Amino acid sequence: MTQPTRKEKPSVFYRLKVVNKKHLTREVFALELEVPHIYRNVFDFESGQYVTLSFFYKNTFCFRDFSITSAPYEEKISLGIKVRSEESAAQELLNMAAGDSVLVSPPKGRFILESKPDESRTILLFSSGIGITPIFSHLKNLLYTEHKTRVFLFYGNKTQESIAYREELDLLKSQYSGRLEIYYFLSRERSANPLLYGRLDEKKLSLIINQILHTDDRDEESTLWDSVDEVLICGKGEMVKTLANACYHRGIPKKNIHFELFETYSEDIYPQEISYPLIKAINIDFTLQGKYYSAEIEDNRLKLLQALLSQKYPIPYSCKSGICGSCECQLEEGEVELLENEYLTEKEKKQGRILVCMSVALSKKIKLNFDLV
To answer: Does residue 7 lie in a domain region?
Structure first.
């Protein structure tokens, strides 16, 4: 199978100045970028979005995506960056100092949440490790813009020392003590509360529901779990899959469970629940980066992305789970079943956009165009 690839990075970047760098843990640091007034509209963003940085590393230009940790009302672009090793390209960013500059793309991404400032909502946030970065932006924005909303953050790390943004999070907890609760889970350090030891998984969610979300001071006849409006999850694939399914099987609709992955992930988030007829000898024609390809797949037991990758075609993808949008294309001919979708809007689906990572062929002839305008 081919290695993960992404769609071509945007050709327009803006040079922004580094105004502050702060070490958060041994591996994580924060980078704050100054947005000149003339670029304010370009860098308007929503919580949960990210930017691509372009920089020179080891004799080549690198493109790396980083989530925005600042909230829109803060009117700045701050990023949380993890240096995984001395060979990591992020090491080049770690070497930057105030006054240096870097090329930055406009904000993008759809790990966003509709703002409802007039409603009283209950929102759960789950994150692990560097997955806190988009969650941190959401957390600040929800507390600032929705004055009746209460938020619960469940944040997993290995040790106390590896908790990024601990100081800032504790300050928010004090500032919004009536509407924000934060629970730190450690997988390699025990605490006085056994609930907080271990990874965030299905078993841990059951304990959270029974021990933390079991009473609701706003409604004596209900529980906090019953009042949950939205769930946001960000972290590694297995954690996202486990928690998303656990929330779904405990009554939270899929449309209210939002997630972002911080790694390439090859599995479906939710089990396949749709059956479809077996179709054999399927012809797939597609356009990709100006080139025309024609392939034939044996049948539709594999999703389109899997089938094309097995024949070594350079299809862009990242998650294989219908989340990132890297494999978005236009269905120009034929019929497919889109099994899951965390990325496309209803308008885009009506226009014929699909994600090949989650699409199953339902006709013997399929024509796709990856070169979207």
So the answer is: no
Q: Quick one: how far is CA 132 from the chain centroid?
A: 10
* DSSP character at residue 309: H
pLDDT digits (tens, 9 = 90+) for 18-68: 999 999 999 999 999 999 999 999 999 999 999 999 998 888 888 999 999
CA separation, residue 21 to residues 17, 18, 33, 79, 248 (Å):
11, 8, 9, 10, 39
Q: Are 352 and 330 in contact (CB under 8 A)?
A: yes
Domain-located, residue 270: no
Nearest-10 Cα torsion for 166, 40, 33, 117: 0
CA distances from 125 to 51, 132, 323 (A): 22, 9, 18
Domain CATH code at residue 140? 3.40.50.80
Domain containing 231 equals: 122-261
Number of domains the chain contains:
3
Question: What residues form DSSP beta bridges with 29?
Answer: 23, 81
Regarding whether 250 and 126 lie in a shared domain, the answer is yes
d(CA 251, CA 208): 15
CA–CA distance, 60 with 117 (Å, rounded to integer) = 45
Backbone angles phi, psi at 209, to 5 degrees: -60, -45
User: Residue 52 maps to which CATH number?
Assistant: 2.40.30.10
What count of other Cβ atoms lies within 10 Å of the Cβ of residue 96? 15
Q: Is there a domain that residue 268 lies in?
A: no
Q: What is the mean pLDDT of residues 156-176?
A: 97
pLDDT at 11 over 70: no
Split at pLDDT 50, 70, 90, the class of 85 is: confident
How big, in percent rounded to 5, are the helix, strand and coil portions of the chain? 25, 30, 45
Model pTM score: 0.86
Stated as kind and residue range, the H or E segment containing 126 is: strand 122-128
Residues in the chain: 373
pLDDT tens, position by position, 313-335: 999 887 777 788 889 999 999 99
With b for 16 or more beta-carbon neighbours within 10 A and e for fewer, the 226-246 pattern comes to eebebbbbbbbbebbbbbbbb
